[in-house]
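Worked example 3 (structure in, sequence out).
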């Protein structure tokens, strides 16, 4: 993929995988946005997703048949073929159940089976109630999935289906489109290496430079760190899509920072 930025897609093949959440209706808008941006879209649905949006609707929008079974008369290995076909797989909405299945490698439906077969970039747009979103099990599952190299699209804040107000809403289709297109567009040249946005959406704090810890009003313990290594790490993370807060001790380096003298400040 060229490092030069461009608008939309150039016929990238995208799987939109829909699971059983009330947010499934948004998958229709997401499908249309991807197609208008120039992508080819293949829809996958779990059986539970069909309770919230019809396969006919998504088939009409995508101009392709919707797959919802691992084994069918037409093909017994759709999930393998699709995993090789796609340039990206976007699971939107992804329920708490789906996250848990992906974490442990359980493939009892077309979505999770294709996920395990996929060789492409995976984007996950969670959707669930507030209490489910903040539960330690869900927090752990998200971290495990990130560790596998998946991209978790930040959830929205607002009124949820239960009536609660808080985090857990699936990101809006426009935000998901931007997240995915930014990933494809923002290859960054760094010498001879091309960096992908593998930290897109992550918030990272980097500390750099010297610190001086006071022993008394006159004496201190410090070091001669220049801060160059920490700044270089922060710049690399920014180039890879992260939102970075750099905390820099007393230094002559000119970067946008929050400066501190002691590691107890901030």
């Amino acid at each position: 993929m060229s490092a030069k930025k461009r608008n939309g897609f150039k016929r990238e093949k995208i799987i939109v995988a829909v699971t059983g959440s009330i947010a499934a209706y948004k998958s229709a808008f997401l499908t249309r946005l991807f197609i208008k941006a120039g992508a080819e879209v293949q829809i996958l649905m779990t059986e539970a997703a069909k309770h919230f949006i019809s396969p006919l609707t998504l088939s009409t929008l995508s101009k392709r048949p919707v797959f919802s079974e691992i084994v069918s008369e037409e093909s017994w290995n759709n999930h393998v073929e699709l995993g090789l076909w796609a340039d990206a797989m976007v699971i939107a909405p992804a329920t708490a159940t789906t996250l848990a299945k992906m974490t442990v490698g359980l493939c009892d439906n077309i979505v999770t089976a294709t996920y395990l077969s996929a060789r492409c970039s995976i984007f996950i747009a969670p959707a669930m109630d507030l209490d489910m979103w903040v539960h330690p099990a869900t927090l752990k599952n998200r971290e495990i999935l990130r560790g596998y190299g998946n991209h978790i699209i930040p959830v929205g804040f607002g009124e949820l289906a239960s009536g609660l107000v808080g985090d857990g809403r699936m990101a809006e289709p426009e935000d998901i489109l931007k997240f995915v297109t930014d990933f494809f567009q923002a290859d960054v040249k760094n010498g001879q290496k091309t960096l992908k946005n593998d930290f897109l959406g992550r918030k990272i704090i980097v500390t750099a430079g010297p610190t001086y810890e006071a022993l008394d009003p006159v004496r201190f313990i410090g070091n001669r760190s220049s801060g160059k290594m920490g700044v270089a790490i922060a710049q690399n993370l920014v180039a890879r899509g992260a939102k970075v807060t750099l905390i820099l001790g007393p230094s002559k380096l000119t970067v946008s920072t929050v400066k501190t003298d002691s590691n107890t400040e901030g």
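Notes: The chain has nine helices and 14 strands. The longest strand covers residues 88-94.
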